Amino acid sequence: MTAASTPAALRRAVDALAGTVPAGVAIVTTGAGGRPHGTTVRNVQRASTDPPLVAVTLSRTSSLLARLRQGGQLGVNLLAAHQDQLALRFSKDVHDRFADVPWTDAGAPRLEGIHAWALADVQTIIPAGDHSIVLADVLEAEVLGGAPLAYWQRGFGTVQLF
């Protein structure tokens, strides 16, 4: 079955299914192309511990994906519970998403106040239907603490363990 032949009802059902799985929210960044660029994602996963790899899923039409195809490094900025507005900002078509957003150049833009950080080298990009999976070698990783921002059923929150 190709994307063009997938019934609309099945596409909606798969989207609904995915929405039932809570996910951490990250802003993936790069400096490839000469200026900072980033987008909000909910699909960042550890692909391997040894060697350390992360997998990021991006739409084939993503401007971030186009920049990552140039090679270089990406930053995974896992957002803290209070950063929902930042997640929204980086998910919209804003001319300069970085305007008035504090960040440093750590190989890729590293945002301030985040829950956790990873810097990685793009290793390979795998086509996957209407998305692509970016596999990247993790060069450094740090958990800064606090509660992470989570996305579930089209809303933001955080996790509570019981």
Describe this structure in words.
The chain is mainly beta and 162 residues long. It is 15% helix and 43% strand. It is built from 3 helices and 12 strands; from the N terminus they run αβββββαβαββββββ. Strands 3-2-6-9-10-5-4 form a 7-stranded antiparallel β-sheet. It has a 3-stranded antiparallel β-sheet with strand order 1-11-12, with no helix packed on it. A hairpin with a 6-residue loop joins strand 2 and strand 3 (37-41). The longest helix has 12 residues, at 8-19. It is globular, with a radius of gyration of 16 Å. The termini are far apart.
SSE topology sketch:
Layout: H1 8-19, E1 23-24, E2 26-30, E3 37-41, E4 44-49, E5 52-59, H2 63-68, E6 73-78, H3 84-89, E7 103-105, E8 109-111, E9 116-128, E10 131-143, E11 150-152, E12 155-157
Antiparallel strand pairs: 1-11, 2-3, 2-6, 4-5, 5-10, 6-9, 7-8, 9-10, 11-12
Q: Main beta sheet: strand number and arrangement?
A: 7 strands, antiparallel
- Order of helical and strand elements: HEEEEEHEHEEEEEE
Low-confidence stretches: none
User: If strands are numbered along the chain, what order do they take across the biggest sheet?
Assistant: 3-2-6-9-10-5-4
Strand content: 35-45%
Number of strands: 12
How confident is the prediction overall: mean pLDDT? 91
Compute the CA-based radius of gyration: 16 Å
The gist of it:
It is built from three helices and twelve strands, in the order αβββββαβαββββββ. By secondary structure, the protein is mainly beta.
